[in-house]
């Protein structure tokens, strides 16, 4: 009688056997065993959202892992020492492209250098709504900033925008309200320069804002879901109150009531 062998996982090795037959002439019992071809490797698909990494397992001849009924080895979990997926080149490239396009299109639409498109991205439409609301409620404060900048006495070097941005985030606090405040600042600067016939400066201002966000604030943007996070935040938050708290904080640091006056003074001293 043919015996049954039990595999390591408790599966009967022989589940693929056919019924024995008898040779009618010689009276010999034959088990008619036809062994199945086993795979030589098991491949788990590349890293998924669940956090598993790719693993290839080679099966040795005579291994107790069976094709029928037994489980393959569990894929290895990513260790804490492995790099965070948030910093992958593809994600950084997408962030750079999205940021550059968002700031450029917003400033050109705001100053009238380009016509608004029928279909706008959610980050762009949200940025327009938030900045317009902020400027409407803080019009005189931003006008005072322009006066302090003395833009008529400056050439086309827009690096002062980065200096203002650095001062704005100088206390190491970053939030979407401050990001919106920076873009609003860039918008009023661009509007003033455009009215003075210096349209070429609009893209230069946008580039300064973009480069600052993609260097000093890149990690924060990635961790906060980039511009999708911006849309989600201002979907429920009151932009005016968020920005007002930012402006009040800076007024407190400077001991003055003018919005962001400290930033402009720091910029002038550089």
Automatic annotation (TrEMBL):
InterPro entries: Apop_reg_Mc1, Bcl-2-like_sf, Bcl-2_BH1-3, Bcl-2_fam, Bcl2-like
Domain of life: Eukaryota
GO function terms (MF aspect): BH domain binding; channel activity
GO CC, alphabetical: mitochondrial outer membrane; nucleus
Disordered: annotated segments: 28-71
Keywords assigned: Apoptosis, Cytoplasm, Membrane, Nucleus, Transmembrane, Transmembrane helix
Signal sequence range: none
Domain Bcl-2 Bcl-2 homology region 1-3: start-end pairs: 127-227
Annotated TM spans: 247-264
Compositionally biased residues, Polar residues: 28-61
GO biological process, one term: mitochondrial fusion
Family the UniProt entry places it in: Belongs to the Bcl-2 family.
Name used for this protein in its record: Induced myeloid leukemia cell differentiation protein Mcl-1b
Organism per entry: Scomber scombrus (Atlantic mackerel)
